[in-house]
Amino acid sequence: MIYKHHQQKLLRWIALFLVGTFLQLLFYIPTPVLSQSSSCSNITAPLTPEEQTYARGAWQYFVKNYQPATGFTNSTGGYPSGTLWDMGNYLMALNAARWLNLTDQTDFDARLNKFLTTLNSLKLFEDTLPNKVYNAANAQMVDYGNNPLERGIGWSALDVGRILAAFDVIRTCHPQYNDWLKGIVAKWQVARSLKDGQLFGATVLPDNKTLLVQEGRLGYEEYGARGYQLWGFSAPKAISLEPFKLVEINGVQIPVDTRDFKSTNANNYVVSESYILDGIEFGLQGELADFAARVLDVQKRRFDTTGQLTAVTEDNIDQPPYFLYNTVYANGANWATITDANQPYPQFRSISTKAAFGWRYLFPDNAYAQKVFDAVKDLRSPDDGGYYAGIYEESKQPNKALTGNTNGLILEILYYKAKGNHPLIASGSTNASTGKPSENASPATASNQPNSTVTTPTANQPNSTVTTPTATPADTSKITEVAVAPIPPVDSPQPSSNLKLDRPLTVIERRYAEAAWGYFQANYHSKSGLIDDRSDFKGATLWGLGDYLAALHAARSLDIITPKEFDQRTRHLLAALTKLPLFDGELPGRGYDTRSLQPVDYGGNPVPEGNGWSALDLGRMLATLYNLKTSHPEYTAAVDKIVLDWSYLRVVREGILSSATVTKEQDGRSLTRVNPETRLGYEEYAARAFQLWGFNVEHSAVGGEYQTASVEGVKVPVQRRRTDTNSKVNQYTVSNPFLLYALEFGLDPQMRSLFEPIFQAQAERYRRTDTLTASATTLIDRKPYTVHSTITGKGEPWVALADDGQTVPKGRLVSTAVAFAYHALLPENKYSQELLQGTTDLYNPLAGFYEGFYEATGKTAVGFTSSTNSMILQSLLYKGMNQQPLIRPTTTMNSPWWVAVSKGNSGQGLPNTATQRSRLISDSSGSYWVSGSENTPLVTGTKVTE
User: Which one of 15, 220, 243, 353 counts the least CB within 10 Å of its CB?
Assistant: First the structure.
């Protein structure tokens, strides 16, 4: 009896222990401890007040869609359903909310305890893994219509990978939950979802049999496999990149999984979200870093081409079919918008809010990412229910779907930013992908580079072929955009600053002016104050910055921008000019990174020692600085301070303009060589600009004898006859420099004798062939990237040449800028009228005017440059000024520049006398600038080259 009593007592104690243990597991409430990872709470870049508003707005989604009975949240607003992926989103959002102080530790623990308690007790599909979807309100297994199913519909390996990544973040940032999470993972038969090194989901066939199906395509497959790897489950084939190929879309080589819908019944879509998740959680590594950059860049290229802001990824929508994949590419189609069954719905393509947030913070220095972010950053529901999913491209109306995916990702992204852009999951936790491209491809940065040979975008550097940089996005992120403080406010605008137009712009002309100014809005670096020479390249030449200053003056004069914006931008640009490193301490170099202000070559490669200077670029800048002083005298002191910092000893020599180049010797030495400038039209333009500042450049100024060639029966100038140099740099004749000269300086008799046959030859070609002709140097979006559509080049008429002198078959373009300029200068001419009619619709309201269209096909030449859009603005201003030269003469000679010149002995090559070497005159043919010397000969003795 005694033995029996003790035995019963022992059994009661064992039972109580087991019940207690069970209850502890069921209702375990962890006690906060001080062992939480310091890295998680290390907020090195606190959210700005505006970013705090974003975070609070996103968190409100989860507050309003919380299910207290289960601790889950609705996957979409008001709809109590959720997948394991949605649960992973919520865990990431909850963690972010804790460290961003959107919730306190008590609320965090209560929420997470309830969530894990329910998750631990979920009924599993075939007792293996969580079902694909559950009712968020009662945790029952359901189908995607939220209909209860006793058996379930299978599991998703990608969703398992998502929640495993979230589990890792929770156990790292809140280690008191580690054992609980380990217990949950141990309960699941994760290994069942792995086979042959790949991820496999389960689906139920119509005959109720379970079929294992390989899951994941390039992007999401690697992301999911990394989640598995965090918990010790290896999927080497899934984490590699193969099989994939590169498909060219909008000029960018995009990696695409070769397993498409036709061959596998699964979509091989390319979207933004997988790369964004990889970036903010694991840090972009290996080829995925390059792939992410390409996926962002191609969306920018689509915007450049169409004017449609683009940020595509999968999203819920607020109407049938309720969920769509907005893609860069899917199943053989570019920019496809499809259902999971590959049904197209292009009318519902949208700008994704979560994608825009992701790209903005993953590539914080990318101007396009900022632009598309600005379009959605305030897209919150008015009832404080969170962020809408996006904006429909076609209707421009909000896609009012509210989802945990959108709002969770926004919170996760903002937490990533607050951590100083450090990945949420410790580096080394997973391996980088090691797959290799299926075909050769050059690396590309997210923001700027075509992936092959390019050249400087401006027409003033026609012979400088270089190789693009091969920096990866990781390298790009190291480029810190310099914050340049504008010069202090200047005096109030003087009366002469208020340029009076002879006639206002017409409604249509104003539309053109606003479109052209759009380029300078889209490509403005708000920190440095600089503008990119071309939209796909983060660099500027002094010529391009001169274009910008000329565009600023035109936009203000045409009342396209306000006086305040003009002043802010002008003071910012002038400050940036004072910060540019000078080559050999003498003159601005040939190119600069518009973010760092450091010297670069024409491919964007850093050249700390510099690469020489261009007298032509200096001339362009001197012309626009002179006009700024004349039209806006309040900036005179600031302008003169800039130009007095420069040394002109080697750029002006014996009346000739010279440029410096740098060559590398085999022994590693850098050698500087200074040679005369001889490029037809450009030399004459630059010389006139130098004359405004008093320099004697009589041998570079227009005049003397010019060799000509017969084109369409017209004697077209080819090059200047000269004995002072043997240089044969000029190999072609184009319109650009002659038009710029005519707009700014007017057509003096010498220049008119060159200008008129150039125009006449193009008009005659049109009359003979019915082919619109506006010959210029222009940019295109494919090899060879810069094309010189010549009047005559290398001895041949109407040939299209690349920078290396090679012929470009069917490469000739009709230049938009040239058409506008000819019409401004010759408004009554029937051919100039034809040109204008053929090009006026070639613009994107947000990005500016395109370079032109191809003569052979009539297709638009994709590309935007400061040069084209500046010339269009100047042409419209020229019309408004009743065809008066845009550069006006100064009325004062007591500015700091002329005072310094008067003192002499500057040691920096200033002019010998304080007098301008050119003057503005008027006669029966119009107004124009001429050299100060009255005995400058006209163009005589021309000779036709056979």
Answer: 15
449 by Cβ neighbours in 10 Å (0-12 / 13-18 / 19+) ranks as buried
Q: Considering the entire predicted model, what is its pTM? A: 0.56
Total residues belonging to the chain: 946
Residue 338: half-sphere exposure toward Cβ, Cα within 13 Å:
21
Q: At what angle do helices 749-769 and 736-745 cross, to 10 degrees?
A: 130
Are 801 and 731 spatial neighbours (Cβ–Cβ below 8 Å)?
A: yes
Handedness of CA 590, 596, 598, 599 (dihedral sign): negative
Picking from 581, 600, 305, 597, the residue whose alpha carbon sits closest to that of residue 468 is 600
What is the Cα–Cα distance from 904 to 907, expressed in whole angstroms?
9
Share of the chain above pLDDT 90, in %: 70
> Token pair of 745, please?
């300086």
Three-state SS at 936: coil
* 322-374 confidence digits (pLDDT tens): 999 999 999 899 999 999 888 999 999 999 999 999 999 999 989 999 999 99
Q: Output the 3-class SS for 334-370.
A: ECCEECCCCCECHHHCEEEHHHHHHHHHHCCCCHHHH
Q: Give the pLDDT of residue 262.
A: 78
User: What are the structure tokens assigned to 886, written together?
Assistant: 């845009």
Q: In which element (H, E) is residue 455 found?
A: strand 454-455
How many CB atoms lie under 10 A from the CB of residue 12? 10
Q: What pLDDT was estimated at residue 784? A: 85
Tokens of 668: 């590693």
Report how many helices (DSSP H) and strands (DSSP E) the chain contains, helices first: 28, 43
**Given pLDDT bands bounded at 50, 70 and 90, which one contains residue 847?**
confident
Amino acid making up residue 548: Y
Q: According to the model, what pLDDT value does residue 267 have?
A: 86
Q: Where are the alpha helices (DSSP H) in 419-541?
A: 473-477, 507-522
Looking only at the bridges linking them, the beta strands covering 706-711 and 943-945 are parallel
770-799 average pLDDT score: 91
Closest alpha carbon to 413 in 144, 744, 59: 59
Q: How many C-beta neighbours within 10 Å does residue 650 have?
A: 17
3-state secondary structure 49-108: HHHHHHHHHHHHHHHHCECCCCCCECCECCECEEEHHHHHHHHHHHHHHHHCCCCCHHHH
Q: Is 192 exposed, middle or buried (0-12, 13-18, 19+ CB in 10 A)?
A: middle
Q: What is the DSSP letter of 2?
A: H
Look up residue 175 and give its two tokens.
């280690």
Mean pLDDT of 725-753: 88
Tokens of 80: 């109590």
Helix (H, G, I), strand (E, B) or coil at 786: strand
**Segment holding 194, helix H or strand E:** strand 194-195
Judge whether 614 and 659 are in contact, CB under 8 Å.
Answer: yes
User: CA torsion, points 407, 412, 414, 415, in degrees to nearest 10?
Assistant: 140
What is the distance between the alpha carbons of residues 211 and 219, in angstroms, rounded to a whole number?
24
